[in-house]
Structure formats: C-alpha cells, structure tokens
Amino acid sequence: MIKLVAIDLDGTLLDSNKKISTRNKTALAQAKAKGVKIVICTGRPLAAIELYLETLGLCDNGDYSITFNGGLVQKNDTGEIIEKALMPLEDVHDLYQLATSLNVPLDILSDGLVMQLPASQEHISLYSQLNNLLTFESYELAQLTADHIFNKAVVAIDETYLDEQIQKIPAPFYERYEIIKTRSNLLEFMPKGITKAYGISLLARDLGIKQEEIMTIGDEENDLPMIEYAGLGVAMENAVAKVKDMADVITDTNDNDGVAQAVEKFVLEPLKGGN
C-alpha cells in the first residue's frame, strides 16, 4: 500500500503552461484525505513553490516538501527545516573557478536568495527567467563567507552552448558533486550523494514509512535517483529516455493528467479496495 507519493514539478505535475490541472489537483486531494503523504520533490527552494502548495492544499501541519533536489526537507506550514545538507564555502570557490574556466555564469542559491556571481563577462544567466519568484542579487566572490547558507550552484544558459561546455567539465568534479541537467538549459551542482532519493529517504525514516510504501513520479534526469529508490517509480510519457528505462511504470504526459492517472490507479484504487 502506497503511503507517500513524491512528485516532481516541471514536466510532471505542471503542464506546459506551468499549471496544475483540475484532475491532478483532485486526485492528490483525495489521496491526502485518505492519509497518504503528498510530497513535492523539487530542485526549487520552498519560496518558489508556495503558490503550488497553496493550490494543492498542502500547507497544513504534517505536510512536507523536499527542496533543492534533496538538500532540504521542510515543513510546508512553517518552513522549518527538519533535514538538511549544505554546500561548504570552499565548494562555491571551486565551482566559481570551474564556471570561469568554462566561461559560463554561476548562480548560488541561498534559501530564497540567488547570489549571482560574475564568472562570465560574455554570458548572462537565464536563471531569473526560469524562477522569477526568487530574489536575485549580484555578489562578488569575496563577499561570500562561511556564515552564508549555500544550497546549490546552477548554470542557466542557452542549451546548445551549455551542452558544449558540459563536455569540458573535468572528471574529478563528477566525483565530488552531483552534476545534472534539470532542464534543457539548466545545469545544477549539489554535494555528492544529495539527491531527491536522499531527501525522500530521510523524510520516510522520520515518518516511519517503508521504501516499498513510496511512489515517485518524475520526468528529468534529476528524478532518476528517486525513481530507482521508490517501491514504485513512475515516469511521465514525456520523460527523458533514461527515466523511462528506470521506471517501473510509464504514465501519460504532463499535459494529459499523467500524475492523476498514476495516483488514481496505484494509490486511490487500492485504498478503495482495502475499504
């Protein structure tokens, strides 16, 4: 029996217009009413998903989100962090040097603040276009101190150029960081071992939920760890090939209520049968 459903946002729960369909909303509300934990699992900070949480009615005591690709587990009603994994200042310095050598912009996320660093004079970050609910401020590297919170680093730039520069990242960086494209024009760096699966595992442990009682739904490469981890990993029809290959089940697209279809079949119908 599924007791926790962890759901990605972009390309999964959200349609192409960044909206949550009525059918998706209804299915998740019904699952929550049955006592199933509905957990948004995203690379975004909590401040960037609050409107979606309100739409879904996930702002009550006992509602949780996994943010920063597994770096934080938070209570939705208060924002309280119950599990966290942060990036040390020395990693920010190393990633800045990498970004400079690749001639790409670098943004550092610190909760709801995006620190934009001048790693490239030629290329401007596109991150503000991707997440306009966050606060963006320009920083020099020397202004950053160990007292700051560093959740993750991102490179947001034209897809073609980004793919070219990714090929130039030295192998040791892959040994130290989780490096993954979360959108076609967005590359993210997280501390090694920090994935959506990691965040889900911590929350499941805290709630006393078993791995086989978890269903995850996603579409992009950063969803791979949670698709593999869950008792039931569900890929969207519009998912990248790697996610489809890893998944136990493939549901419909994000524009055709794929999340609702999976929840209705694997969560609601078994609960109905159990009653």
UniProtKB/TrEMBL annotation:
One of its GO terms (cellular component) is cytosol. InterPro entries: Cof, HAD-like_sf, HAD-SF_hydro_IIB, HAD_sf. GO terms for molecular function: magnesium ion binding; phosphatase activity. It holds the Pfam family Hydrolase_3. It comes from the Bacteria. NCBIfam families: Cof-subfamily, HAD-SF-IIB. This is Haloacid dehalogenase. The lineage of its organism: Bacteria, Bacillati, Bacillota, Bacilli, Lactobacillales.
